[in-house]
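Sample 1 of the test manifest.
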Amino acid sequence: MILTVHHVTTYDYDAPMRGAVQSLRLFPSRFDGQRTIRWDVEVQGGIRGGNFRDGAGDKVEGWSLRGPVTEVTISAIGQVETTDTAGVLRGHREIVSPFAYLRETSATWIDHALRDLAEAAATGTKDPLDRAHRLSRAVSDAIAYRPGTTHAHTTAAEALSQGEGVCQDHAHALIASARAVGMPARYVSGYLFAREDGEPHEAAHAWAEIWVETIGWIGFDPANECCPDSRYIRIGSGLDAREAAPIKGVAQGDGSERLDVTVALEAVQQ
Amino acid sequence: MTTYFNEMYEGGQVREPYARLEDWTKAMPAALRAMKQAEAEALFRRIGITFAVYGEGGDPDRLIPFDMFPRVFTQAEWRKLERGIKQRARALNAFLLDVYGRAEIVRAGKIPARMVFQNEAFERAVAGFTPPRGIYSHIVGIDIVRTGADEFFVLEDNCRTPSGVSYMLENREIMMRMFPQLFRENRIEPVDGYSDALRRTLASVAPAKCEREPTIAILTPGHYNSAYYEHSFLADLMGVELVEGADLFVEGGFVWMRTTEGPKKLDVIYRRIDDAFLDPLCFRPDSMLGIPGLMDVYRSGGVSICSAPGAGVADDKAVYTFVPEMIRFYLGEEPLLNNVPTWQCAKPDECKYVLENLGELVVKEVHGSGGYGMLVGPKSTKDQIETFRAKIEAHPENYIAQPTLALSATPTFVEEGIAPRHVDLRPYCLVGEKIELVPGGLTRVALKEGSLVVNSSQGGGVKDTWVLAE
């Protein structure tokens, strides 16, 4: 599938800021399931900084803006060819040991309920791949997809306790559960092409990857009860949503910020 | 009373390195001594050196007691120490480069993956990055204790930003000012080459993108920090800027320093702030001390940071037990300096031994420092031992134990005259284009009679450390 992405993020400030710095993890991953045809990242009026590929294989680029800044517009526009690898992150170059993904963060802190959920799902099978699937299913069952019920800082434990949330909450809960039974897991940010009819929809997405010893990293999307396929574009990863965020930035000044994000995905007719 | 090695007297004889000091003390009446001591204190106060040694906490304005009786090594003793220290600094750096790369030492099964990758000090953000010359820890402070004429043990390694070197330099300066004749009578290796060596070391790890004489700065958390004196002192000696996070910004893939003549590109940052505070975009988002975007510049090769972020994974007390293995694995050599035998409470059989022998052991927290959270078995009451037993049983993985070492003692001026007091040593090894070690270091002394805890927060003082020339 060839997908066209048009992703524009705008921060508006109600008072001029002295300057802004951005760290963008906003480039499609390189692996067997994805080939970038073109991809342009631009910060309007910004100064491009250095870029590098980190130990997890993500490309990162720094940007800065000189003040006064009243608006920061970040656009990522491009085209990616995807193929279904049944969720397996094959051919992805990275150097970080999977063991580094057993560490808890505040968003993925494992409470009793998460541990119970994970242990219940994991019993009955010793096969790690089977375990990963069961964990993902358990999270899908325990947390209903309901936008607006959680916020950016909701933790895995909170989402589980209220039984509803969005893809970020599903991913956090799955990561925490996997780690609870000793399986390395991480947060993945990206895009999902979900509507064949071409209607605009919320295309920014997130899911989890679990390390399965004999295979490698495998994606699981508990929000959609599946593994990522050719409708998914993988961008970046991290221990949790904060680390994996495609856009991190700070602006210096006293103004308050208003965020506007539009993501449009389109399938190119072949 | 336990026996210990007295560095000045052996079998009733004065040991060679201290030969000339006996006459010096005999010729110093109590009144003169008191005067000199007051003079030394006034000098320390005037220069404002009142900070605590790294991580020790305590009152930042308290003066650490200075003992005028120097601690002396012969050239031969020092050469042996020097070889061992440099060997260790090389191995620690090889380990750091390895664990942020392919982690061959873990693959080879020499150290558990968990201990490295789940370590709080392991920074995933720098994995896969090779800093200039492959060096992560540019200033390695290695704490050493002595138990015999020829027996030295490494107590711990400090790979991040070991402090206290200003004491090494100031103690010497003050001794030379107060007792010039001592320095005429004894041929003592100078330590004042340290600042040049530090500057050389920092300049030698400038990023490849730097095509001229590198600009270096020391990054301090500010004047509220207990080691601020040392930051400004070293900046002064090296002739480099002392900056805070707010003085710096990133643009176009480089770090810039605000100056009265406009922005100046910075190539090497000797940072004296912890990893967590370096860059709010990468580490703690609430950090007010750091520079947003610094890590992106660092990772794309626009600036060097010393010590490299992530260097702390090599100096944790649990990783410490694997340093001899690192030396064999990376250098193919046998360790010249030994570790103190260490029991890991994380291992059930070792924990059992520790709990059965608490009265004789020293127990430390894996992540603790500064002599806090520590049990010295032979010096503790039954209650203290039982409190510790409960702590170990609750979280065995947080504790290690070591035998109570009979630390060597050197003569020290005390209320009643001169008496032996226990000491340790922290030399500062510089790792850049070359590995350099100034002949000397910081000697800390436990001023309380019988005490083995040399930390300034627990009643420790400092001494000038001499290495005699041949």
